[in-house]
Fold each of these.
Amino acid sequence: MLIWLASYPRSGNTWLRLMLHDILTDGQSRPGGRAARNGFAPIVSSRSFIERQTDVQTSDLNDRELNACRRAAHDIAAGKAAAPFFVKVHDNHQPVGAGEDGLFSPAAGSLAIYLLRDPADVAVSLAGFAGIDLPRAVDILCDDHASRSHITRQPHHDQVAYHLGRWSNHVSGWLSRPSDQVLRIRYEDLHRDPAGQLRIVIGRLGLNVSQARIEAAVERTRFDHLSRQERRHGFNEAPAGRIFFRGGRIGDGRRLLSDADFARLVAANGAVMTAQGYAVRRPETRPETSR
């Protein structure tokens, strides 16, 4: 079966994948991109993943055919997996257009682990990752038509285009799955108590892992360790010339977004922010303009 590691970009997906990989390999892996290079939790928008499952050349397909091919790839991978097979996904759970089948059929995977993060902090992290200003990052989180191409202008290489949509629709889509098919993990909780949140994930997966092994994985994947590893050896998911592990702080968005940008973010996403425990008001002390 497939285990979806799903999130809006810049919400902690890679960090969780590195921790899980460390746990599952009992510390034999090391940070710095090895999880991805070793094939752990490949992203499902990868052309190589789709083509390996379906034996279809993705470059030959139109958008509707590609959507059907991707759905088939998920079903095939799920059918072949004798043990839990982790995959990363940033796609919106909902169909891109009216009348289209969704990418995620009930047959493909029994559990989605959904990483959720305060959208104000997502905007700050996204701006740094994509090399854009904060107003543009907020635009993306408020855009029903946002896609991978809005985040990076670099060639897709081994990834097909994927649909994100606005932050609130992305969250609602994944969390609309039946309760036995989705586990919500808030980035803020993972940041404050990584070992406790990993214990929840491991328990939901039905794996027998000691607390000592979990705590060792947390120590080996601390942000300062990951950042140091990246500066020494690079990281395969970082955009050219930019840093992937920027610090992972909580609360930057509410300090750094301008009043106007924060108001736009709330206007487009406020109902879901409130439902997921994120305040739609901000601290009184803050800069007056975006940086």
Amino acid sequence: NNEEGFTSLLNWIKELKHMKNLDTTIVGMEPTGHYWINLSKWLVKQNIDVVTVNPHHVKRNKENRDNTPSKSDKK
């Protein structure tokens, strides 16, 4: 949750956009705790669209995809 990490994320986003030939970016964040707020504000300043997603829906979607309750997976 610092400038170096934020810049690293932005570079990764740009890399993916180039590799996949994409024009737009939308970052979805679970608004749990307070850790997402600084990144969200920073991304908006970088002209990246940020949306919040309901943690309950994320959990249900993940469980539907692989039927595991673990939070330590790549998803």
Amino acid sequence: MPRAAQVCYQHGCTQRVAYRGRCAEHAPPAWETRSARNQTRDRAWERHVRPQALVRDGFACVRCGAREGLEVDHITPVARGGSSTLDNAQVLCRDCHRAKGIEDRKK
């Protein structure tokens, strides 16, 4: 059964709405598909640097040699001035990546 139409929540607006509580004029903006942190993220990392790093490191973790659960990591985190280039990328397995993250936070 559909909901009964309501009046827009915005003070003074008399338009009727079927859901969400606000008319199209007063509705909040739609959620972004990417988080605010990733709005300006360089897509070159996903398209170019990650595949090149995997090939360069032989599809294996550079610390333990594992070949499953691989992730490409920034050697120097971007938050600490690292860049999204091949020189700053390394392949790590999930466990080594997690351990490196803990080490980075202690610094």
